[in-house]
């Protein structure tokens, strides 16, 4: 692994190893030159392939003949910013550095810089860190209205960071906080392709054929109220997991009683969402072209707001988050036609008369039944009297 150049008398050593460290002496005539060769070997845990929130560990081996120099070790991330180790241990000529928890954006080429004043050492060692994860790792809240269409997507970073290792994943839906999740689809990714498999037949959703690369995507063509919940996209690599969640909140409006509003009647408009809202969001009923008196807001963390109306008009229910209107639904309160009012009045009067009629009929039937009972009683008494009278005549 070495050779001496005949012209310059330089000694070249390839494929350096820790055992190559030591003092080298060059003698040429009466001249003697001594050189101390320091050899560093840097290794990184998990071969530099991480998931978010994992902690990389650097091990720097330093082999040199005594005396050992005092080394100053500094680590720089892919943005050339200094990274302070969480802990640093030294055992003889081995330095162990534990860094901070990683994020997906930490992927790139890092640098370990080694410095010493005596003997003078100024060496930089580059190494790659790849963090497999999502472009949107934090919880995302998405709003939809009943019967609308919504698409949920997770953008993976494996192509961006040139991740060549295979990994798998799945998409789950958890409708309630403590409920068990059920699987919607699973997928596997290799260097050549990305493949998804639909797992649920009861839950109505689609896997779009055309979607951006490195993206997991599902489409709900017609949103139902029970489609809400936590959609969890999970990546798995070498028995380790990471996930990114999208919370879907569904809104609907209704009226009680439903149907046209008759004169003098009152109707309650109901606007509700499928999950409790965060503190920075609320629901608001507002009458179109109305006044401030026609506005009703939900209280903090409430999932429903009601407003009572007694006249026709168009009402909007808005879901507002941080003063930003996210979604909106309208409800049109219509006044019943005149014939419906007359019909309702007639039905009311007719119903009253029918009740009175039934009451009178009941009284008549009761009186008739009482008279028949009395008549039957008198006839029975007469028959008893005749029998007793005949018996007396025969005895005479």
Note down, in words, how this protein is organized:
The chain has one helix and 27 strands. It has one helix spanning 338-395; strands at 2-4, 11-13, 22-28, 31-37, 39-44, 49-50, 57-63, 72-76, 82-83, 87-91, 94-98, 108-116, 121-131, 140-145, 150-155, 167-174, 182-189, 194-198, 215-220, 229-237, 240-256, 267-273, 281-287, 295-297, 304-309, 313-321, 324-333.
What is this structure, in a nutshell?
The chain contains 1 helix and 27 strands.
List keywords for this structure.
mainly beta, eight-stranded mixed sheet, Immunoglobulin-like, 396 residues, single chain, 1 helix
Q: What gap, in angstroms, lies between the N and C termini?
A: 160 Å
State the helical fraction. 10-25%
What would the CATH topology of the largest domain be? Immunoglobulin-like
Share of residues in strands: over 45%
Using the CA coordinates, give the radius of gyration: 43 Å
| CATH architecture field of the largest domain | Sandwich
Number of strands: 27
Mean pLDDT: 86
CATH class identity of the largest domain = Mainly Beta
Largest sheet: 8 strands, mixed
Please report the number of helical segments: 1
Pfam families: CD4-extracel, Tcell_CD4_C
Transmembrane segments: 342-369
Organism: Calypte anna
Keywords: Membrane, Transmembrane, Transmembrane helix
């Amino acid at each position: 692994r070495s050779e001496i150049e005949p012209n310059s008398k330089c000694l070249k050593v390839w494929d350096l190893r820790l055992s190559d460290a030591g003092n080298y002496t060059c003698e040429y005539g009466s001249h003697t030159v001594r050189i101390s060769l320091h050899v560093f070997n840097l290794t990184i845990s998990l071969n530099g392939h991480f998931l978010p929130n994992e902690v990389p560990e650097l091990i720097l081996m330093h082999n040199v003949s005594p005396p050992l120099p005092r080394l100053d070790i500094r680590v720089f991330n892919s943005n050339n910013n200094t990274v302070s180790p969480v802990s640093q241990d030294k055992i003889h000529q081995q330095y162990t550095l534990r860094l901070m928890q990683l994020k997906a954006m930490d992927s790139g080429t890092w640098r370990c810089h080694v410095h010493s004043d005596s003997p003078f050492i100024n060496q930089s060692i580059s190494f790659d860190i790849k963090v497999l994860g999502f472009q949107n790792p934090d919880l995302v809240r998405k709003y939809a209205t009943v019967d609308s269409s919504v698409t949920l997507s997770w953008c993976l970073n494996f192509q961006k960071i040139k991740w060549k290792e295979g990994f798998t994943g799945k998409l789950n839906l958890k409708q309630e906080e403590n409920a068990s999740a059920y699987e919607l689809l699973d997928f596997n990714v290799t260097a050549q392709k990305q493949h998804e498999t639909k797992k649920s037949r009861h839950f109505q959703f689609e896997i779009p054929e055309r979607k951006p690369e490195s993206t997991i995507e599902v489409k709900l063509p017609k949103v139902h109220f029970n489609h809400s919940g936590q959609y969890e996209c999970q990546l798995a690599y070498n028995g380790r997991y990471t996930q990114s969640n999208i919370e879907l909140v569904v809104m609907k409006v209704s009226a009680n009683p439903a149907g046209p509003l008759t004169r003098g009647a009152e109707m309650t408009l109901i606007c509700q969402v499928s999950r409790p809202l965060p503190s920075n969001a609320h629901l608001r009923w507002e009458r179109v072209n109305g006044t401030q008196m026609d506005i009703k807001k939900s209280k903090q963390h409430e999932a429903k707001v009601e407003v009572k109306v007694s006249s026709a008009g168009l009402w909007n229910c808005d879901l507002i988050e941080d003063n930003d209107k996210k979604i909106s639904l309208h409800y049109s309160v219509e006044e019943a036609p005149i014939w419906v009012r007359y019909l309702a009045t007639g039905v009311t009067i007719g119903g009253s008369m029918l009740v009175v009629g039934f009451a009178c009929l009941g009284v008549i039937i009761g009186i008739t039944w009482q008279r028949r009972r009395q008549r039957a009683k008198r006839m029975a008494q007469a028959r008893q009297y005749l029998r007793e009278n005949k018996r007396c005549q025969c005895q005479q």
